[in-house]
Structures are given as structure tokens and as C-alpha cells.
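Workshop exercise sheet. Pairs work together: one partner reads the sequence aloud, the other fills in the structure field after running the prediction. Swap roles for the next sheet.
Pair: D.N. / O.F.
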Amino acid sequence: MTNNELFYFLGHCLALGENQQIRQEVVATIEQEQVNWKHLVRLASNHLVLPALYLRFKRHGILHLLPAELAEHLRMVYELNLQRNTKIRAQIDTINRLFATAGIVPVYLKGAANILDDLYIDLGERMLGDIDLLVSDEEFLTAANILKAEGYEHNYPFFEEELANTKHFPRLVHPVELADVEIHRSPVELKLSEHFNYAIIAT
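Structure field:
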């Protein structure tokens, strides 16, 4: 299998749904032993879709066609990710409670927003790197200071005099919580923020 063919096959696996033709093509490729599983796992891992791949195979009755060791590996990755995401959701709940004391209502972005919106059928499907959230300009430093008071720290300095040129606060890391937090004051590049910003989203 060439790299292009491997990408194509992975795309078909992730597209498994109601289309029976796609399932038949995926099954045929597996049964003809055309898949280099080591390369596929590396590709799916690099693109953070191993849990999604496991769930597609499981829902469409394909897991038994995989080498047993691979099926077990995918299951373990999925379960670890489910546990992680469950803890991250609890972390988000804690952040919301902390912000509520100051009247701050954050808008979550990217993966955090997707799992809060129940975009995925299964909480363990999406792999999350961090928690991205957006607040207003007026609440930006207050939000950062609230998290810092709870033990979050940033690894490089932030200077208030540079605020006008800052899109987001330095990444905040907690010694116990799983996910780093990135507080944004703009959801886009600053030069575009006049057209898309917290005020527009929050209304």
C-alpha cells in the first residue's frame, strides 16, 4: 500500500456509516491482506484518530477481522482516551464554577467546545490536547488570575503592556489537572478581530 492508498483507506474507515459500499470496500481490503497495520496505526496516531478508528470498526462489526493484538491495542487507546476526556470535562466544570464567581461566561473553542456540545456519539472519540476558551477583553486578565490562584502556572512571561498585541494568555499548566488551558481574548488573528470576536459570539 502506498502512502496515498493508506490515507485513502483510513479515510474510508473513518467514513464508515450507512453507506454499505464503503463497508464492503474496507472489509475487502482487510480480507485481501492489503493493509500494513503498523503503518496505518502510525498514520492514525499522528492524526489523533485512533479512538475514532476503533469506534468505527466496533460499530460496523469489523474488529474481528483485525489481528487480535491490534484490536486489543485500539480498545486500550480508546478506553484511556475516554477516561481522559471524562476527567477533562470535570476540569471544565471546575473552571466554569471558578469563573462564575466573577461573572465570567467563557466560550469554549475547538475540541473542548465539541465535546461540550456532544458533537460526538461517544465521549472517547475525540482526542483533546488542551482546553481552549475565549473571554472578553475586559475579563481576560481576571480569568487568567483566577486560574493562577488555583495553582495554574505559565512557562513563559506575560507582560501587561503587551496586551494589545496578545491573542491569548501563555498556556496555563496545573500540577494535577490533566489538560493545559489557553485563554483567548480573540478567536482569530487580531487584525480580523473587529469582524469576529467574543462580543459577536456571545450575543
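Discussion prompt: The radius of gyration is 21 Å. What would you look at next?
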